[in-house]
Design brief:
Shape: globular
CATH superfamily of one domain: Aspartate Aminotransferase, domain 1
CATH architecture of one domain: Alpha-Beta Complex
Distance between the termini: 58 Å
Structural class: alpha/beta
CATH class of one domain: Alpha Beta
Number of strands: 14
Radius of gyration: 22 Å
Bound molecules: pyridoxal-5'-phosphate
CATH topology of one domain: Aspartate Aminotransferase, domain 1
Strand content: 15-25%
Strand order of the largest sheet: 3-9-8-7-6-4-5
Oligomer: single chain
Helix content: 25-40%
Number of helices: 14
Amino acid sequence: MAGSGHAGSREWRPQTKLVRGGLDRTQHRETAEALYLTSGFVYDRAEDAEAAFKGDVQRYIYTRYGNPTVGAFEERLRLLEGAEFCSATSSGMSAVFTALTALLKAGDRVVASRALFGSCSYIISDFLPRYGVETVFVDGTDLAQWEKALSKPTQCVFLETPSNPTLEIIDLGRVAELTHAAGGKLVVDNVLATPMLQRPLEFGADIVVYSATKHIDGQGRALAGAILGPKSYYKDNLQPLLRHTGPACSPFNAWIMLKGLETMDIRVERHCRNAQEVAEFLEKQPGVKRVIYPGLKSHPQYELAKRQMKLPGSVLSFEIDGGKERAFRIQNAFEIIDISNNLGDTKSIVTHPATTTHQRLPEEERLRLGITAGLLRLSVGLEDVEDIKDDLAAALRA
Ligand SMILES: *Cc1c(COP(=O)(O)O)cnc(C)c1O
């Protein structure tokens, strides 16, 4: 069947799934995927509407519930990830929020790694406790802290690896074991790794979430997110929440993501090659105190990253002498690299986490995470790597 991930008895390889997975051509036999920009769907007879709402027939009812273009994106990503289901959402944050709240109720307990994307950290530290959920943070790289925190019954564990912006690597297999022993589900924010580089489900994770805004689009055009996991979780927990609270992905954005997936493999591979070269280059520059990139032997979890990830990713961070003032001077001197908080874009992007993505955190907490005034995060793009290096060298001299 077209787009099913198989050709006869042969399972497609990943790149073929990315190009053809979920493809379901209309009677016009268009080459590219059709964009169904519609909020609703019509019925020939009232009886058909009744049957659809009763669930006696499976068909599209309303785009908040499902849409053929959104469905094609979900199916393509599902095949790649090897999950039982995939649900697309309006943004990465709606994916994180819905995935967590679908699992939790008042009185439950969540354990999370401390080094998280700013908004994820807000959900765990500020939002969930308001609804009676106990939340505990641990240093994600310290297995002893996970063991201690997960010695009590826990419904949900949430982590991000590599983390943003300090690129800590967490041992997925071990944390999955501890989570299950505590009776919980492991939810992994796999954004920085991308679906190409790390497969959390293979290490025992239960649920994977993405901001498709990042490498899946990869061209800075639109927001979307995705939640992947087992069918039971979808049916019992997630589907009712998605339908009735409405974090639906727009068909237009899903179409952009669907087309983004087709080139994601080659984009991510080149991103990683450029990032590795830039990381090695920065390590040799005067005035650069340290470079954090999982592909460098100097990274504290270099070996773990090699075991867990196919390649070390597109994002690196580096710390310069001279604190905020010099960090700003360097950013302002870039001629190619843009100042912005996005990542995974074809364009190289720099951000100063302490004053942007993580400015909400108290300084003490920022320093505990290694987000110093001299730390810059660089999302390495697809420009010629020599131009990226030239831009960095000139800015570091400024
Ligand atoms: C960007 C990002 C998100 C949020 O995604 P949006 O699409 O911006 O809502 C969540 N987690 C990580 C790690 C991210 O980088």
